Amino acid sequence: MSNHPNYSFFQSVEKSFDKAAHFTKWDKGLLEQIKACNSVYSMHFPVKMDDGRIEVIEAYRVQHSQHKSPCKGGIRFSEAVNQDEVMALASLMTYKCAIVNVPFGGGKGGIKINPRQYSVYELEKITRRYTSELVKKNFIGPGIDVPAPDYGTGEREMAWIVDTYSSLKPGEIDAAGCVTGKPVSQGGVRGRKEATGLGVFYGVREVCNMPDVMGKLGLSLGVAGKRIVVQGLGNVGYHSAKFFRENGSKVIAIAEYEGAILNENGLNEEEVFQHRKATGSILNFPGATNITDSSKALELPCDVLIPAALENVINKDNAPNIQAKLIGEAANGPLTPEADEILINKGVVVIPDMYLNAGGVTVSYFEWLKNLSHVRYGRMEKRFTENMNAHIISQIEHLTEKKIADTERAFIMHGAEEVDLVHSGLEETMITATHEIMDIWRKNPEIPDMRTAAYVCAINKVATTYTELGIFP
């Protein structure tokens, strides 16, 4: 996860921002304000370990922008956490939320630990202590700053956070909205787990349905039959692979840090996952060829490459060897700015991370709304819809004197449940965002790539909010 020697992750985000700002009409001072991180909270706190020794934990929470409240962004547990990385990810969150029309400012958190080296009890103590530090400084709350899971964290940690927050804020009726990505029993929303991967699929599918883009790349319309390479079999990589496979694409290779596997006839991500669970590695998967150097999988000939692991995996050294025609950035920052330049010259279309992996924050927004409304999606109308649909079917059958097939009947009858509404809201969000970005790119042929168009889209929305608030008269 080493960053490019010349500049940090945050500087590379700023570099992309400046490149796009050039195509906007906003005042220089306003652009500087949008770019800056509003608040950076860096903390050290002691935690007593199982063996009785005390360890001092380093942690961060960054609020990049308050042009919309609350701030929103994940918390990662990783030894690579540092202030620069958290600032970069917080700023990407601001732009990401703006592009997908989710009314949050960007935030991000990190605790500098390797979670594998701690017991569950130690992790719980670290997470709860971190939460109480955030509460102390007013850096968390349903209207202030709402964390979520990220690299190294999940539902379990979010449950600890909401419990700690509630106990420190007794009687706060919206306490469940202080964090998202919670277990469903604790106010979480169905469909959150697969949200990022499903969002990646919807975004790539939408671009694959654009005749002008596919024509330029020499590819057929749609995702069916496309050859996909996925790097990373974590939550995002797994679900991306799953939705592509279910919609007729062939996932020909999957890469993980121990190596990669290739099968031109396509791989089933669940079988690979189970194989890895049983053997501790994806290598030696039945019917697949091993690739010992995992990074070589990125250079395989394919139609679509999905890097869904860590940042900077495609850089100036390997970008010239990339054979994919379309890259969908499922991870945060998988391409360096130099890689971008090289791929633009090669005519590769890169669908940028800052909106493509926004499925997580979009569904987090739905969860937050659910927590504030205190009612499960679909609870009010599901039965009504089913009764109405049953009535319509019986009328059709009565008028046509024909019976509707059982499978069709079940499909038409079905009233939307929470997961249906969440998936449908996510699909709408990703389709709208893709078209907004592509329209900006089509209208200004000088914009070099889709990432710059996405930044232009984000800058315009944030700057409009600032000016309408009268902060910059």
List the helices and strands and how they pair.
Blueprint: H1 9-21, H2 28-35, E1 39-48, E2 54-63, E3 71-77, H3 83-99, E4 105-111, H4 120-136, E5 145-149, H5 155-168, H6 195-208, H7 211-217, E6 227-231, H8 235-246, E7 250-256, E8 259-262, H9 269-279, E9 289-291, E10 304-307, E11 326-328, H10 337-346, E12 349-351, H11 353-356, H12 359-373, H13 382-400, H14 406-413, H15 418-443, H16 450-468
Parallel strand pairs: 3-4, 3-5, 6-7, 6-10, 10-11, 11-12
Antiparallel strand pairs: 1-2, 2-4, 7-8, 8-9
Helix pairs in contact: 1-3, 1-16, 3-16, 4-5, 6-8, 6-12, 6-15, 12-15, 15-16
In summary, what is this structure?
By secondary structure, the chain is an alpha/beta fold. It has helices at residues 9-21, 28-35, 83-99, 120-136, 155-168, 195-208, 211-217, 235-246, 269-279, 337-346, 353-356, 359-373, 382-400, 406-413, 418-443, 450-468; strands spanning 39-48, 54-63, 71-77, 105-111, 145-149, 227-231, 250-256, 259-262, 289-291, 304-307, 326-328, 349-351.
